[in-house]
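Table S7 (text form). Paired inputs.
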Amino acid sequence: MIINIKYSDYLMNDYDIDKCRIDASKHFILKYMKRWNWDFNDLRDEIKNSYKIEKLGKRKYEAYIKDRVKKIIFVYYKEFDTIFVISGSEGS
């Protein structure tokens, strides 16, 4: 029997992505969400379905999106049960 566990599910056991609140910086909203034609539901789905999430510090994470071109940088605040998206990037 082979069990497939997503890397993001293994690392992100600190919180439930479906229940926590998601906010984004003005920079991320105007530059990346507008360009990628996303709303907050799309952002939540992309973080949940990302193929890799790296923890960079105490609260900072990087989520690599499945098309391997986009990256989302966010912070998780445990006290408020909130994800705050700082920035993103895309490349080839």
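Next pair, protein 2 of 2.
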Amino acid sequence: MKKFMVFILVLSVSICFSKSITDFLYTYMVDLYNVQNNIAGSIVPVIVEDSEQLGLDPLLITAIFQHESRFKNVYGDDGNAVGIPQLHKDAVYYVCAFYPEIRKKVKEINGHANLIKYPVLQVQIAIRYFYLIQRNLELSTLEAIGKYNGRDDMYNIYTAKVISEYASILLAYEKYKIK
């Protein structure tokens, strides 16, 4: 009985944390970056749930997306990077190799170029990509951040900028919790 009560307490705290972080990220994206309500409402739960499910920090994942595109669903890198997380074709197909359900969805939409129409799928792929490169390549968080952007060294300007974005998000989240 005691173990059951501890489990319920941990579960309750986890659910409360998830809800507040979801509310924060929604407000953060809409108020600071003018993300459309429907886009924020669809991607924020995916960022939180998928990140937590894979043992990643949703605020760090958010920092990567913030740095990549400021949450704009656009083409970048001369049309080679797609969407909010700025996914390259190689990253998409790398994830497809490990996740058959993602491969099926990507095939249904006719590949990488059409991802621009599917922000939720973009986010699902990007989170899994970060997870896979960190796990499969046995990288530290700093190395994985750099690798997400195609860097091979742990200390680089991309990683520094993402960490700076992460710090600002952490501070904003702390202020949000106090309100």
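Helices lie at 2-33, 37-53, 58-69, 89-98, 100-108, 119-136, 141-148, 157-178.
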